[in-house]
Design goal:
By secondary structure, this protein is of the alpha/beta class. It has one domain: Alpha/Beta hydrolase fold, catalytic domain (Rossmann fold), CATH 3.40.50.1820. Helix content is 31%, strand content 18%. The protein has an 8-stranded mixed sheet with strand order 1-2-4-3-5-6-7-8, sandwiched between helices. Helix 2 links the parallel strand 3 and strand 4. The longest helix is centred in the middle third of the chain and has 16 residues. The mean pLDDT is 97.
């Protein structure tokens, strides 16, 4: 029997519930200070109300595109909460896009996967260079799914993907079948099998798996197992980081996390 709190985070992080206000505030502050002419906000990639993305352009020549897929257990959050995480790649000349997507319970995980696959070619249109996809938690699952054979991306776009950075990814959905959260997610055995990146063959591109050493053991286990499943994937376990602060280095141009992300486009 799985612990029903195995994947809960806020109650197990000091001040954990405060992050839900802290992230949108940091995102607003970033948008206020980034040049308005280098922002393309609330752009559609589909017909659904949540199929929108924000794009931030660097102040120098664009070297490529980073797409960050947010977490929230497929049930919460949106592009407007994470703008500040664009700061790290932007400082190195990379454009950064952050899409929203339909949420559970209105959408199933498989439908959310298809939504991100629909977003990628729209976002990438007109931005030359390599493509890097980063994602956190549920967003890590979605990022990894984009390099699975059934993702359905156009060949030309798939060939541009230089790397995936999956941060605290939910790589195996089978444990979620037994959790209370599945009342919203409605994952069944077939969907869990299909939507678990851990069951997909390793891609040709570089893969970085990241997790905080202070995260809930279930998340650490997921990251280790995902890295084992794709033998060429690099695994980084960051001492002292929990599930909510493990992504903060993306906002720091000098962070090792940003360095690892962008280095995947150099190989």
């Amino acid at each position: 029997m799985i612990d029903p709190t195995a994947y809960d985070n806020a109650d197990f992080i000091p001040g954990g519930h405060g992050y839900f206000d802290r992230w949108p505030a940091a995102a607003r502050a970033f948008r206020e200070r980034w040049p308005a002419d280098r922002q393309r906000l609330d752009r559609p990639y589909g017909a659904e109300p949540r199929q929108r993305f924000d794009l931030f352009l660097p102040e120098t020549e664009t070297r490529g595109l980073v797409i960050f897929v947010h977490g929230g257990f497929w049930r919460m959050g949106g592009r407007e909460d994470w703008s500040h995480l664009a700061a790290g790649p932007l400082a190195h000349g990379w454009a950064v896009a952050i899409p929203s997507y339909p949420l559970a319970p209105a959408a199933r995980v498989s439908e959310i996967t298809r939504s991100i696959a629909q977003a990628l070619p729209v976002i990438a249109d007109g931005i030359a260079g390599p493509l890097l996809i980063a994602g956190h938690s549920a967003g890590g699952q979605l990022a990894l799914r984009m390099v699975c054979p059934d993702a359905g991306l156009p060949d030309a776009l798939a060939d541009r993907i230089a790397g995936i950075q999956a941060i605290s990814p939910l790589a195996d959905l089978n444990p979620l079948l037994m959790l209370p959260i599945n009342a919203d997610l409605r994952i069944d055995a077939a969907e869990a099998e299909r939507e678990s990146p851990i069951n997909c063959p390793a891609p040709r591109c570089a893969v970085e798996i990241e997790v905080g050493a202070a995260e809930r053991p279930a998340f650490v286990d997921q990251a280790i197992r995902m890295a084992d499943a794709w033998p060429k994937a690099e695994l980084t376990v960051t001492a002292g980081s929990h599930h909510f602060d493990v992504i903060e280095p993306l906002a720091d141009p000098q962070s090792a996390m940003v360095g690892r992300l962008l280095s995947m486009a150099e190989g």
